[in-house]
Amino acid sequence: MLKDRLAICERPGGCGDNHRSVRRKEEVIWIRRHDFDCIVSLLSGPHNLHSYDELEMPHLHLPLGDAAAVAPILDAYEEITRRIEAGERLLVHHERVDDTLGGFLAGYWLWLGRCADVPAALHATERLLRRAIDPRGREITLGVADSGHRRRSAPADASPVGDSAVSESADPSAEAGGIIEPPATPAWRTDQ
């Protein structure tokens, strides 16, 4: 989501009935080998935290809880941004890459000041996720917008990767850590 700084995923090991401890262990090993400094869990419960401890993977638990409660979301934004600015590479997860995580991300772009308003933040996130954000995610984003809280100074290269409409001043070159536009049609569909 932020090049070489922030990525998202579903809960390591899978979600719901598909969750497997062996898969979780393999995925945590993969995460560590790919130089992520910390896993950030947004789950309301302590799921997977014991596994992160067992595998000596640094982690942070920032439960989102109720969508109506904006304070935990703003606290999570502060902590994530503080760690990114300290040079850490973070992997943020929720149960799945769903509307809750999408709304959290859209609110983050808005809070960072990289998107001017809610529609722009939702549009950027929908392009990144390549799916629409439903009412649950929109509620989270609107909650952040309605709180009136914004970050005072956003990092210069903290644009969401994948949407060229996010910031007018962003350098679109990949070398500058700027915005990379995803292809409209995946390559595997055009190679037939």
Plain-language structure description:
With 192 residues, the protein is of the alpha/beta class. It has a single domain (6-157), classed as Protein-Tyrosine Phosphatase, Chain A. Helix content is 40%, strand content 9%. It contains seven helices and four strands, in the order E-H-E-H-E-H-E-H-H-H-H. Strands 1-4-2-3 form a four-stranded parallel sheet. Helix 2 links the parallel strand 2 and strand 3 (59-61). Helix 4 packs across helix 5. Residues 163-192 have low confidence and may be disordered.
Task: Compile the SSE list and pairings.
Elements: E1 6-10, H1 21-33, E2 38-41, H2 49-54, E3 59-61, H3 71-85, E4 90-94, H4 99-112, H5 118-129, H6 135-147, H7 187-190
Parallel strand pairs: 1-4, 2-3, 2-4
Helix pairs in contact: 4-5, 4-6
In short:
The chain has 192 residues and is α/β, with parallel strands linked by helices. The chain contains seven helices and four strands, in the order βαβαβαβαααα.
